[in-house]
Design a protein that fits this description.
mainly alpha; 4 helices; flat
């Protein structure tokens, strides 16, 4: 299945070509790598947009040079145009990846759950008795350390309260 090369705007010509022998078919891994680079470009452009807007002075009665305003406005417009192109490129890469991997048997699981969403039950295969024993020992050690840290935090909190009380009485 021959796949056309996606347009790689902004990359030098040596990075636009896939590895030798892969000209007939581009793998989803290669598309994902291009997608990762595109996301990095999107983040960089977005940071530049925020830097431009942060450096822009609000017109609160101060006369600013019209040329400076036009220059910053032009830069901002160019960054926004590039950002829109990068998002289109990312969408095309995503659609192509989904198309190429649609024949996989198992759909990828959601990597980052939504806030408030309970994760589904995790299947765990039965472990050997020594592994279960070691797990119980580690859990007990963690519980003990947590209890020690809790006591220490309470002591620190009480100490801070005492110090603050002394400082307020001193004033």
């Amino acid at each position: 299945m021959a796949a056309p090369l996606p347009q790689l705007a902004g990359l030098p010509p040596q990075q636009q070509q896939p590895p030798p022998g892969a000209l007939r078919e581009i793998s989803p891994v290669f598309l994902c790598r291009i997608g990762q680079e595109t996301v990095q470009d999107i983040v960089t452009r977005t940071m530049e947009i925020f830097q431009i807007t942060r450096a822009t002075q609000l017109p609160n009665g101060v006369t600013q040079s019209h040329a400076v305003y036009q220059d910053r406005f032009g830069k901002l417009q160019e960054h926004l145009r590039q950002l829109a192109l990068l998002f289109r490129k990312l969408r095309l890469l995503y659609e192509r990846c989904v198309e190429m991997t649609s024949d996989l048997q198992e759909a990828p699981a959601e990597l980052v759950p939504y806030v408030g969403e309970e994760p589904g039950p995790v299947r765990a295969e039965p472990c050997s008795p020594p592994v279960v024993q070691e797990r119980q020992e580690v859990l007990e050690k963690v519980r003990q350390k947590n209890q020690e840290m809790k006591v220490l935090m309470d002591q620190m909190r009480n100490l801070l309260w005492d110090v603050n009380a002394m400082l307020t009485l001193r004033k």
